[in-house]
Amino acid sequence: MSSQLIGTSGWSYPSWRPGFYPAESAPESFLRLYAEQFTTVELNSTGYRLPAHEQFARWASQVPDGFRFAVKMPPQALRQLDSFQERVRSLGETLGCVRVVVDSPRDDGLMALLLGSADPTIRFALDLRDPSWDGVEAQLAEAGAVRVGDWDAVGDWRYLRFREPPYDEAALVGTADRIRLLVAAGVDAFAFFRHETEPTAPRYALRLLELLNR
């Protein structure tokens, strides 16, 4: 059954009190409180330093069944993919997918290394930021991977990031309509709003969920 997985980039922001988290809530309770509202989150801190198995397991223990983490892979893990994959499997069933950020121009050797070494049971979303990568989408689809932001990707899932707030109601309604069509077609849609100092990201995400579920 396909899913609409809507959330934000990160959750551990004290400035989201009291606009999103209760004013008296402690930081160690943020993930539990977040997971009461959303079914997915981007793990961005993992892109800078890969946590220990125990940390991944702790995060997984704080969320309910059906919750999914989108893990950002650190750049060095491209050359140590087996170790990275072993570590993120500590999330168990809460591992939703892995996002790989690539800022450099197109490198087909790098792509072959990644896709050839990737665990086929882990979903990989490639955040390819240089335009020279345009046209690689079919190659990704053959490996079950997607390009971040590719609404028209081939396959049974998408990875969408919304990075340019503010979003007016018309934009959110249009986004909801597009995601609804994907889910109706059997596609899992991961969608994340960029965090800001104020809790605008969870507000947008909650409104998107309202539109999707009405």
Structural write-up:
- The chain has an eight-stranded parallel β-sheet.
- The chain has helices at 30-35, 53-61, 81-88, 108-117, 137-142, 169-184, 200-213; strands spanning 4-9, 40-43, 68-73, 95-102, 124-128, 146-147, 157-162, 188-193.
- Helix 6 packs across helix 7 (200-213).
- The chain has a single domain, classed as Protein of unknown function UPF0759 (TIM Barrel, Alpha-Beta Barrel), CATH 3.20.20.410.
- The chain has seven helices and eight strands.
- The model has no long low-confidence stretch (mean pLDDT 96).
- The protein is of the alpha/beta class.
- 35% of the residues are buried.
Task: Give a brief description.
The chain contains 7 helices and 8 strands; from the N terminus they run βαβαβαβαβαββαβα. By secondary structure, it is an alpha/beta fold.
Mean pLDDT: 96
Q: Total helix count? A: 7
- CATH structural architecture: Alpha-Beta Barrel
Given as residue ranges, the uncertain stretches (5+ residues, pLDDT < 50) are none
Helical content class = 25-40%
Oligomer: single chain
Tell me the number of strands. Answer: 8
Which strand order do you get reading across the main beta sheet? 6-5-4-3-2-1-8-7
Query: Do you know the CATH topology?
Result: TIM Barrel
Shape, per Cα inertia axes:
globular
First and last CA, distance: 19 Å
Number of domains: 1
Top CATH class = Alpha Beta
Binned strand content: 15-25%
The structural class is alpha/beta
Using only CA atoms, what is the Rg? 17 Å
